[in-house]
Design a protein that fits this description.
The complex is a heterodimer. Chain A is α/β, with parallel strands linked by helices. In chain A, the strands form 2 sheets. Chain A has a 5-stranded parallel beta sheet, with helices on both faces. A 3-stranded antiparallel beta sheet of chain A has the order 1-8-7. Chain A is built from 4 helices and 8 strands; from the N terminus they run βαβαββαβββαβ. In chain B, α5 packs across α6. The chains are: A alpha/beta, B alpha/beta.
Chain lengths: 184, 310
């Protein structure tokens, strides 16, 4: 990604602690793990959801169902971009009917991805409730959407980008703040 | 990845472009198989089907694909339209374009009809079969079905048997399959097997039984019964004896060979019911995959702005 690194917002330890806290909050808020399912939003929401599942399994002893959501077909900007984005597979191998669904993503920004994920989830069935977990909330919302679980709130300008790196995709765990030459 | 506004044939696509379409068809198939078969993706887009030749499955398949993606699909019944009053193909198409259609899906008896429209229209054009030229989405769904069952097609032996001479399905499959590395053998009686097809890097043969050993896929083409009147083969019985597929004959392949047929089938002529309805028969699978592949094509073309005539 172009742009210069301004600062490291989270290192490996900070990222792990944030996920541990979110894992505990999910169990606390849902009063246990019954009926709770995790759905990671492609791409980096998926490894984050896997880690949450792993952590919850360690202290609760149950492994939550885990699904993968690709929101490409639900984007609201398809008619304004020139080349159609690549569609990947959605893999939610369980029914969401009546479940407490926790959507997991890396960054919450405009809220448009979360909006698309809500629609995509509801086309799979009628969950009892949907919650949203994000590693970083950077502000600048364009829709009335908020997260239920936030790893870190980071106030940003429009010229900045939050880059979440996870071992499974990028080789290391860290969150960087990048400065771009123009507003995004 | 080049982005096109039209899909006219597989001849002009690269192997990677073909794979990209097939890859995109996978998540489309998942959507098709779930209880809520509806996406907001192409909300507000209009897709017109303009079929100058009879068709049920292809036309319905395109309409279904457009509707699942959220587009509005409008069908122009040529027999009840101004075409009967002598309107030209281009005038009809321009009329549709003036109604702000985004995509026109055309089937026509003249080879090159789809390409002709693509050159003259701003709207995207999908060739749903033009004369004896190409029928790209049929070949894509055939290849999708083969890849789903066999994985990579590189080195796989595919026999296409029947009326190769008149078949746009065979031509599109030859282009697509050879680009993906498959070994293609075209089989049929001499009157229905044009020798110039060997220029496309495929083997031609008049003897089905000699080619069967080792075949991973056998695709039977529909025998157009009116060809018999034209004297291109002696009788249906004789055709069936030499080129008809049945379970006993297919044992010669020595494998669980996949049996494909583009439909509609002449049961007992080019394909026996025991084979068509058995576990190796892919006919219904092909129909389902057809909608998925057409969803992928419609989705990908809607982003295209380049007018490339393949």
């Amino acid at each position: 990604m172009e742009g210069t690194v301004k600062s490291k917002i989270m290192d490996e330890d900070a990222l792990r602690r944030a996920l541990t806290r979110i894992a505990h909050e999910i169990v606390e808020k849902n009063k246990g793990t019954e009926n709770v399912v995790l759905i990671g939003i492609r791409r980096r929401g998926v490894p984050l959801a896997e880690r949450l599942r792993h952590q919850i399994a360690e202290f609760e002893g149950t492994s939550l169902p885990l699904g993968i959501l690709d929101i490409t077909l639900y984007r609201d900007d398809l008619s304004t971009i020139d080349v159609q984005p690549v569609v990947h597979e959605t893999d939610v191998p369980f029914s969401v009917q009546g479940k407490n669904v926790v959507l997991v993503d890396d960054v919450l920004f405009t809220g448009r991805t979360a909006r698309a994920a809500l629609d995509a989830t509801m086309d799979l069935g009628r969950p009892k409730r949907i919650q949203l977990a994000v590693l970083v909330d950077r502000g600048h919302r364009e829709l009335p959407i908020r997260a239920d679980y936030v790893g870190k709130n980071v106030p940003t300008s429009r010229r900045e980008i939050i880059s979440v790196c996870v071992k499974e995709v990028d080789g290391e765990d860290e969150v960087l703040l990048l400065e771009m030459p123009h507003e995004i | 990845m080049r982005m096109f506004k039209d899909l006219l044939g597989l001849e002009g696509l690269s192997p990677d472009e073909i794979r990209h379409i097939l890859q995109t068809a996978k998540p489309m198939k998942d959507v098709l198989l779930r209880p809520v078969k509806k996406l907001p993706t192409l909300r507000g887009k209009a897709v017109y089907t303009l079929f100058y030749e009879a068709s049920t499955r292809t036309k319905t398949s395109f309409e279904m694909a457009a509707k699942v993606l959220g587009a509005d699909a409008v069908n122009i019944g040529v027999s009840q339209s101004s075409v009967n009053k002598g309107e030209s193909l281009l005038d009809t198409a321009k009329t549709l374009q003036a109604m702000q259609t985004d995509l026109i899906i055309i089937r026509h008896s003249s080879s090159g009809a789809a390409g002709f429209l693509a050159r003259h229209l701003e709207a995207g054009v999908i060739n749903a079969g033009d004369g004896q030229h190409e029928h790209p989405t049929q070949a894509l769904l055939d290849i999708f079905t083969m890849r789903e069952k066999l994985g990579d097609l590189n080195g796989k032996k595919v026999i296409i048997v029947g009326d190769v001479l008149h078949s746009r399905v065979a031509r599109s499959n030859v282009w697509g399959l050879t680009k993906l590395g498959a070994e293609v053998v075209l089989v049929g009686p001499p009157t229905l097997l044009p020798p110039e097809m060997s220029a496309l890097g495929v083997k031609l043969s008049y003897d089905l039984d000699r080619e069967l050993p080792g075949a991973d896929v056998v695709m039977a083409l529909r025998l157009q019964l009116e060809r018999q009147q034209a004297g291109l083969f002696p009788s249906l019985r004789e055709y069936s004896r030499s080129y008809g597929l049945d379970r006993a004959r297919l044992r010669a392949t020595g494998k669980d060979t996949l049996i494909l047929h583009p439909g509609p089938m002449n049961r007992g002529v080019e394909i026996a019911s025991d084979l068509a309805d058995g576990p190796q028969g892919m006919v219904e699978e092909q129909v389902t995959n057809g909608v998925a592949v057409r969803m992928a094509v419609i989705y990908l073309l809607m982003g295209g702005t380049t007018n490339v005539v393949a």
